[in-house]
Amino acid sequence: MDPATLATKLASSVVVPLVKKLFVQEGPGAGVVDRPVRISGLVSFRGEKRTLDEQDLAGLAETLVGRALRSAAPGERPIGADEEQAVADAVSRTLGALGAIEIDDLQAVRLGTSEFAGLLCAAEPGADRQLSADGARFHAALVETACLHILHFFTQRSTFVASTLVEQTRQLALLSEQMDTLARRIPEQTGEDAAFEERYARDIIAGHNHLTIFGIELAHSPDSWPLDTAYLSLEAEFGVTGAAPPQPALPAEQALSGRDRVLLRGVAGSGKTTLVQWLAVAIARGTLPAKLDGLRGRVPFVLPVRRFGEGGFPVPDDFLSAARYPRAGSQPTGWADRVMSDGRALLLVDGIDESSEADREQLRHELRRLLALYPGNVWLLTSRPSAVRENWLASEGFTELMLSPLSREGVAAFIQRWHRAAREGATDLDRLEHYEQTLLGAVRLNRDLGRLATNPLMCGLICALHRDRRGYLPRGRKALYDAALSMLLERRDRERDMHPTDGIDLTQEPKVQLLQKLAHWMLVNGRSEMDRSVAVDTLAQYLPSIPHAAEQGGPEEIYRHLLNRTGLLREPTHGSVDSVHRTFQDYLSARAAVERHDFDFLINHAHQDDWEEVIRMAVALARPDECAYLLDGLVAARKGARPVESRHRKLLAAASLEHATELDPAVRARVHRYTRDLARPTTLEGARALGWIGPIVLEMLPDPATVSDEEAHRLAVTATSVADDRAIGYLVRMRDRSSWAVRSQLAGAWRRYDTDTYADEIIAHLGEDGLDFPVSDISELHALRRLGGRSRVQISGMFTPDQLLAGIVAERLTRLWLAYDLGVGLTWLSAFPHLTTLQVSSGVVRTLDGVPEGIEIVPV
Predict the structure, then answer these.
(1) Using CA atoms, how far apart are residues 528 and 254, in angstroms rounded to an integer?
(2) What count of Cα atoms within 13 Å lies in the side-chain half-sphere of residue 301?
(3) Hey, where are the domains in the chain?
(4) What is the 3-state secondary structure (H, E, C) of 598-661?
(5) What is the 3-state secondary structure (H, E, C) of 223-258?
(6) Nearest alpha-carbon partner for 722 in 410, 447, 388
(7) What 8-state DSSP symbol labels residue 489?
(8) Beta strand pairing status for 837-840 and 856-859?
(9) What digits encode the pLDDT tens for the residues 220-260?
């Protein structure tokens, strides 16, 4: 066995008692100190009050070596019995250097485990000179393991060290826990398990290290792109609490850091599945960022809920077959159960919303059972926002995160990355450069376009259409999807200079009709995936009514043509078919329902969250009289309906109004009348959910001047959930309130709106008392400086120290909140003469090295 691996098998229960003997015992209250302490004055084998002599120190080293060697399996000892004593002597000499080094406990913790171990070895340079190569590696690994627990011990014995080095304290505790976990895991892994895991990791990389950026494939380019090229770091935000300062949106990997159980919500197209893929591939490759070190060595299970079928959540040994992994049958017997029992798994459960609403409580029950049976694993569940209620798994320790809409900078980054990928192998390089620049300007200036470009899917569609139509873009969601269908169904092959290779040449309309039939079947049956045989049978049923298609081939040939030539279907596994994205499925389902006049059918299911997008798109597609019938049906009273269902229907009607191209004013007024009273949320969760309606909710909200501070806060949460500059006009009416909760909510929403407008209309008028002013990008930093700076500033984006030094008004700053990991030391803070307090978001900022003296560090 590798010497380093053997050392990691030493659990803290073995090492900690030995480490404690190296240091003098502290009396009551000894940990409460206001300054660092020299390590040489803490050791128990030096000074007048020594309790350990050289022989005792040698005995501790022998115990450490012996316990490590006893954990090795037969034939896996890294050294022979004749070298055991020599290694123990070397460890004893190295640990003895604790009494000679000239640093204090604070400096030691700042160094970190590896550098501190290196310092001890350098202080006793000849300790391992007589050892073999394996013996020297074993010695180094044992010393580093001991140093981890020594530094952890320093943070526990000294409140000064712990409070001064918040992040290092947390990291040392986390590393100690991880080593304990690893100590439990390693003995269980057989050679057969290890070989399978290596092959499984390669297959994870091959199967998930790519994604499609919509529309790029139009110009002689590949259909999918490496995740490294295409992945855009997403941002996630925590729920509104009202009791604490609102946490800013963070990069998703930063928000996930240190959390073992997460429910991640996100709208269709927001990147939930892409994030799952990226995590699985990064773990399999061993390329996780430092913020996610806690996931290293885990085994990822990618579990799309849509593939679970009627059997519910599978047992561990069925995970791979449920995910349709081709080599599921070759896994060693009981392997997945062993991985789960050892706490080594990362469960990526993608798409809770893709189970039927009736099945979700059963799914939750099965999740709870697995959590209880297999502790120590890491879970990430994804869902559309409204599919499960707030705090659905809070009792099980799940943190809820919400993927944020792309910020202005995120949209710009996506557009730039899309065009960079499109230029690979393209012949229209000059035009692509022009398209990129004009589109970047358009999304900043065109409000309707900006409202659509809020997630990676929509941004990809916009980029593709902008290029496809040589700089012209349709307006509105319906026009955008119609144009996208035209691009994908009719122009795709033409742009690729492709001629029919299967003898089938269908125009756009027959393709749309046939795809609608498949989408409608999945809608009616509550599925997001169907068996290939069912798809072929469905086409066989409808082909006779579409002669232009029927005369060109049978259902099998037509199915294969739609799969290969439309870009809208895919076979995720052998024998199954689904839509390339749920949004396209919803749009085609809505078209089918409108053409079939299935409005009562839509109304009857309007209380179900997975029908929301279908109904909103149906409103956009319906004729004026049909639209009126549908909206009236949504607000009408229904016998036996629960209050929560009635409220959901009415809010859905209000949310759908903006999509109606022509509507009787009386119907619009009726919807407003039925929903007006619903626009006074009574909880913060309800306030945030109300913002889902979109800009039209701003017309429904009451005058904030007439309500209490508590209700004004909820109204501010709703209005700031509407990422449209029209919200600024409503928020202006709250900017002069003295309530900290209201002011904090308004300040925290800056990143969602035009920087200068929001700065002048809102930020400039907010009372500064106790308020942290956030800056997430360079334009906000400059705007805040233009306003004269602020005494309390929150850094919620990536900056360099030079940018912050140039942007923050140094004479005003007294309190700085680091809510983003800048990844650099903090000596630059000495440039702010009046800075007295540094707040740091717990679990976010990794290094506090170089904080000038006199600055208090406060974890948030």
Answers:
(1) 31
(2) 29
(3) 3-188, 231-403, 408-495, 508-590, 772-860
(4) CHHHHHHCCCCHHHHHHHHHHHHHCCHHHHHHHHHHHHCCCCCCCHHHHHHHHHHHHHHHHHCC
(5) CCEEHHHHCCCCEEEECCCCCCCCCCCEEHHHHHCC
(6) 447
(7) I
(8) parallel
(9) 444 555 666 556 778 888 865 555 566 788 888 888 888 89
Rounded to 10°, the helix 84-96/54-70 angle is 130
**Is 815 in a helix, a strand, or coil?**
strand
Pairwise CA distance, residues 780 & 433, whole Å: 27
Neighbours of 196 (CB within 10 A): 16
The half-sphere exposure of 231 on its side-chain side, counting CA atoms within 13 A, is: 21
pTM (predicted TM-score)? 0.65
Phi-psi domain of 398 (left: phi exceeds 0; alpha: psi -120 through 50; beta: other): beta
Cβ distance 432 to 182 under 8 Å? no
**Whole-angstrom Cα distance, residue 470 to residue 22?**
73
Strands (E), 35-169: none
The pLDDT tens digits of the residues spanning 606-644 come to 888 778 889 999 999 999 999 999 999 999 988 888 888
CATH of domain 231-403: 3.40.50.300
Alpha-carbon distance of 648 to 652, in angstroms, equals: 6
Residue given tokens 């540094």 in the structure block: 838
Cα separation, 566 vs 732, whole angstroms = 48
What is the CB-side half-sphere exposure of residue 807 using CA atoms within 13 A?
20
The string of DSSP letters for 350-397 reads: E-GGGS-GGGHHHHHHHHHHHHHHSTT-EEEEEE-TTSS-TTTTGGGT
Residue 349: enclosing H or E segment and its boundaries? strand 345-350
Q: Would you say residue 11 has pLDDT above 70?
A: no
